[in-house]
Amino acid sequence: MKATLLGVVALLVVMMSFAGCAKEPTEAINGVQAALEQARTAEAAEYAPRALAAAQDAQAALQAELDAQKKKFALFRSYKHSQELAVAAQTSAQQAQTDAVAGKERAKNEATELIAQTRTALEEARQMLATAPRGKGSQADIKALEADLTSVESTLSEVDGIFASGKYLSAKAKAQSALQSVNRIKTDITNAIEMQTKARAGVRK
Question: CB of 104 within 8 A of CB of 43?
């Protein structure tokens, strides 16, 4: 009788041990969800897409493990590996948030620099155009170049608005395009000046 009782107690201990292992790591799972939400709030999708994708993959691996355990008979479930995967997924999501914050700051600085470069180039282009020789046949070209510079100036105003809204990658891309346009206009002005100079030299001969 005593042996039977001891056997029952031993079985209960084993069952309790299994039950302890069979409990989902709810707190860890919730931690993963919270960390991912923080990463998304930090705009990881825009500023750290690879890190966010890695975190989402880690979450998917966790969910797959949880689903696999749920399919097992209760006494044979174990969430030890789920706990490990949850910790890894949370760490990955936190890294995505960190990368997003750093990426956004980097994009902000790069956009700021490009905007400044574009404004400087725009002013240089206007000065070049102001000193360009006027003469027969050049007025139409000069007016066209002035219109191009005005268009770039308008684009810069748009960039300022985008930058102010915190969309630094978009501001950076638009500022880069504007800078390329100004540099192209500067080249056109230089070519126009050279052509006008050669034309005048030919007339004097």
Answer: yes
